[in-house]
Write a structure and sequence with these properties.
The chain contains ten helices and 17 strands. It is of the alpha+beta class. It folds into two domains: 179 residues, DD-peptidase/beta-lactamase superfamily (Beta-lactamase, 3-Layer(aba) Sandwich); 112 residues, Methane Monooxygenase Hydroxylase, Chain G, domain 1. It has an eight-stranded antiparallel beta sheet, with helices on both faces. A three-stranded antiparallel beta sheet has the order 5-9-6. The chain starts with a helix and ends in a 5-residue tail after the last helix. The relative contact order is 0.17.
Length: 341
Amino acid sequence: MATARVQETIGQLQAAVRDGVLANLHSVVAFQQGQALLEAYFEGEDERYGRSLGRVQFGPDVPHDLRSVSKSIVGLLFGMVAIERRLDMHALLSSILVQRRAQFGRAAQQLTLAHVATMTMGLQWDESISYADPKNAERQMAAAPDRVAYVLGLEPAEPPGQHWHYCGGATELLAAVITDLTGCPLLEFATRRLFQPLGLQSVEWMGDDKGPFAASGLRLIPLELARIGQLVLQNGDWQGRPIVPGSWLREALRPRVPIEGDMSYGYHFYAGGTVHQKQPVRFSAAFGNGGQHLYVLPELNAVVVITAGHYNDFGTGHELPGRVLREHILPLLAAGAAYQR
């Protein structure tokens, strides 16, 4: 049953890509019950952190930009430090980044770790415009001599804790907590504590002379991103070894701040849901510019990774992965697993 259904689903995806219904879809990978269930790779236009790669034939060994999926990976790394150092999420950020206190503006002085982790900082920050536009806040942060100091010096837009506003600067601050408390550069810490334990071989974290772009620079092959999703699904354990504290994941994946519709935000992870055959299906997710989506679906004991090339297209870049999930992957997953309610 499984093989025939998987091949049928791959055929449907191939036809939809060929006919332009799912134009510039790059890959779809699904795990269920801890096993790779489906891998489908296509051909399309791609970029490497904003630089065109032309037309690429994707496959199991071809790395892909994850863009803002990087934020959720940083969230996992921060969680390791937060649990090990027994950080109070309601503690002021200034009490943690003590070596940077001179950089704190009046707005940043009010920020707690929870404000940062939930992107409710209330700072003047706008990522709603194209990342090709120099006025985009993340572009401005990247160009600053000190990215952390840039974020800490921003003016207030509203009191912190009121509303969710998408902010790559929040991820840069979490990365600063990691590096300042551990004394270890972000990529070195991530490699030692996450990538190597999971056996990831394709890791590349784009950056500059100031370090990796914490909010958006990670590149991986889709199968390895699915492995990170499987780690989350397994409450932080990998092959019998705890990698990410389960206590952190239970807090991080919990809906904390409403975004819109049925979507909420936890600690650097999205919490949402969809419907299949009139049954609600919950997911935890990480989303990246261009159509990079990681879904963790506990009721189906499944993980889904979707990559695409719709960079800076905020409509199609988000809608296409959701359509792939609803129309092609959920029917396959639902056929192979009973809902665990």
